[in-house]
Amino acid sequence: MKKITNKTNKKGTIQKRVNLKVPTTQKMSYLRKPVKTISGVAPLAVMLPPRKCDHGACLYCPSLNAPQSYTPKSPAVLRAASLDYDPVRQVKTRLKMFEGMRHPTDKIELIIMGGTFLQYDSKFQYDSIKKCYDAFNGKKSKNLEDAKRMNETAKHRCVALCIETRPDKCSDSDIKRILEFGATRVELGVQAVDDEIYSKINRGHSVKDVVDATSRLKKAGFKIGYHLMPGLPGSNVKKDIKMFKKIFSDERFKPDQIKIYPCQVLKGAKLEDLYYSGGYVPYDKETVKGLLIKFLRLTPRYCRIMRIMREIPQSFLIAGVVNIDLRKDVEDEVRLTRAMKKIKEIRFREIGFALQSGIKIDNKIKLKMTSYKASGGKEIFIEAVNKDDILFGLLRLRIDKDGKKEFNAMVRELHVYGPALNLGENGGVNSMNHIQHKGLGKEMLQFAEQMAIKNKCKTMRIISGVGVREYYKKLGFSLDNEKIYMERHFI
Ligand code: SF4
Question: Could you tell me the residue range of the domain that residue 323 belongs to?
């Protein structure tokens, strides 16, 4: 293994300089909607057919003739309904759309949306996932294992798979199943971390369920996203800020990603009655803006704010903030103030967005490490950044103690940012357009191995999308006996 020399500073550890030629400006005018693949992969959502959640409905969640929590006029629902919610047709249609927009489609992140997927009949779950792989492979397989194996070398490779679930539908057996699916990321509907609020909104689970699900998922190697909903009945601005701070200071939570959907009153939700009886008033635009600026500043550097605001068709929105592009307003406002330097969340620092804005970029990259405790283990967050803290790539390494002596190392995420490239392309050695496929992932992985050895681990495992297995094989990893993780033994 290549030797990496470490240099330690007072704040953390700043490691070796990475010898990588990267662009200093970017033009992506050849793409339609370039932001779709700006973070390195093509996200492809498959919507499930309508099904009610087992516990009933949360107070704010519309129960209409559509997948639970969506409206019949939501664009994703209209598309899926027109294809009879068939996973194969949905995947094929989206692939065609990406190709029509000239986006690379070699690396796909599959997202299963609508309702609580893990509460559907188990056979339906296996069948749906298999069909998605079949559609990527362009071939019908015998079973899920066969479909996954074919996808390892297929043209459209599933490099990440995301499942959305409730904190109380995330047991060890649920996790075993989603590992079999090839999932790498789980989004938990958390909304708030307060049992009184949960009871008011009929969530049907407790804060303890959030804590337990987070711990199980992290130990299994998943990247975890929380959905958060400020402005719920029973909350207020002060309480929302307090809960947000708790999520990142209490080691039982600490998600890798968040989505922030301020509470709105939607047609078909029970909250509608409370609103009309005067028992609930949603936050106005200025309140939400103020809160978002605060949240942006409070989010640690290891967390990505994936999305702010839900896309709700106007005709279904009874009260609440309507501006879908509020994030842009808030970020533009912040960029004009000194607060900008205090914003460390991942998306705000990503190279893809920096290139798109046309700013000049310093191309000297170093690896930086931040360690923190989370859910009883040690997280080592490795980033490739330049002197302006622009982010080119990241790796999440987790060290868990197994029994008295054994330590386990798990790579929960390896991601090189910048516009997506097809497999085998590197955009040219000195390309002014692309960061991917230039060896940055390998550099970060080698560094993670050194950290794992330093932390007394004898093996390193990686939760890998099926479509990334070939990449890890080339770097000396192999599929474990259960055919779930890629692994490498150090001794
Ligand atoms: S768990 Fe999610 S989908 Fe189910 S009712 Fe609650 S918000 Fe809606």
Answer: 34-348
